[in-house]
Amino acid sequence: MPTSHRIGMVSLGCPKASSDAELILTRLCAEGYLTTPSYADADLVIVNTCGFIEAAVAESLEAIGEAMRENGRVIVTGCLGTRKKDVLAAHPRVLAVTGPHALAEVMAAVHAHLPPPHDPFSSLVPPQGVRLTPGHFAYLKISDGCNHRCSFCVIPEFTGTLVSRPVGDILEEAERLAKAGVKELLLISQDTGAYGVDRKYRSGFWQGRPVKTRLRELCEALSTFGLWLRLHYIYPYPAVDDLLPLMAAGRILPYLDVPFQHADMRVLAAMRRPAAAENMLARIRRWREICPEVVIRSTFITGFPGETEAEFQGLLDFLATAKLDRVGAFAYSPVQGAAANALPDPVPEAEREERRRRLMELQEDISAAKLAEKIGRQMTVLVDAVDAEGTLARSMGDAPEIDGVVYVDDFFAARPGDFLTVKITDADAHDLYAEAICSK
Question: What's the whole-number mean pLDDT along residues 38-44?
Fold first, then answer.
């Protein structure tokens, strides 16, 4: 058997991009290629890019440049790949450029430069595939593309319209992950709440029984695996209300990642956001009535073109009333090709950033108060790591890498993937501190 080729992978961007990278790595492994974290050891390097905002574009172009300098044989994939002319203008000697979720195109490029070392049908890969995440949690992508055309976003130009995965395929992947020891699944897509719209919610099949291609039914089926199930990227459709009873019953985590982006109706209309006319404060109150424990995380844009000081103050008033648990904010950043670039009355860059700072200062006080309410309570946490100071874990209200953590200092009798029962002893604006009671 010929010596296996070694391939390096650099993956940037969101969890959806990471999911694409995992599919590529799994196929590479299935075909007998080896992977390496070293430029020097790699026969070629795949750079999985992001192109959402100009800062991400710059980071992706820099990553491509580094790979070219250190290795010289580079295949570019991901969202920036849809701007092939820009990639080639900056790095004309890359081997190939493809767009996002382009597994077949990436593998064709790999085969053209490094023929597979042996028959893929004889290869062995882990049943869960090759993952970029730790072994105890995994992202599970349920669809690609988006039917919305928000004025600040060009992602649909990269990914196309909504294409939902067959429900049976999703459940089979989840079952493999559960059997491999995964304890938490994070459902992701560009528009998770719209899952099944393109298929008109028709039924698929899993283990011989029909399952409707709709988010509620998918969650009901996924909940049978006994894993933490966390939902990301949920637009505030009325159908979201159907998920809250599942959270209240403990079948899925009481966690909603809802990117509101703003609270002013005029600004939301200029953004072309879905559900722009909804009374979101009333919706949030309703969600908390159904499931008092629900944790709501969201993101907001400050300094959108035309945003007045009064409209921004309305956003601050919304946050003060809504008291969301987790909030991220971004100063508006023009994106090449976005419709918002043509809107009148752009907000100066310094003012955009100043508004972002003011928003986050307000949210820090809200977050600190909400976390302080948890002191003295017992809760179940999932262990992410154990280091020299103790155990790092997450509560049901903390998604990996974007939310807070629970520090269990001086406790070392745990491993990543363990569940602990802890008592919260202290809190700050972002994180909780606890003492262990028991593990399971």
Answer: 95
pLDDT of residue 362 exceeding 70: yes
Beta-carbon contacts of 276 under 8 Å, excluding residues fewer than 6 positions away, are 265, 268, 269
- Whether residue 326 contacts residue 297, with contact meaning beta carbons closer than 8 Å, is answered with yes
337: pLDDT strictly greater than 80? yes
- Phi, psi at 307, each rounded to 5°: -65, 125
Residue 120 has pLDDT above 60, yes or no: no
CA distance 32 to 69: 26
Nearest to 272 by CA among 149, 128, 386: 149
Q: Are 87 and 97 in contact (CB under 8 A)?
A: yes
3-state helix, strand, coil in the chain (%, to 5): 35, 25, 40
What pTM value is reported for the model? 0.79
- Find the DSSP H helices in 118-227: 155-159, 167-179, 215-222
d(CA 339, CA 247): 37
What are the b/e assignments for 67-98, b being 16+ CB within 10 Å? bbeebebbbbbbbbbbbeebbeeebeebbbbb
pLDDT bracket for residue 96 (50, 70, 90) = very high
**Distance, CA of 385 to chain centre:** 20
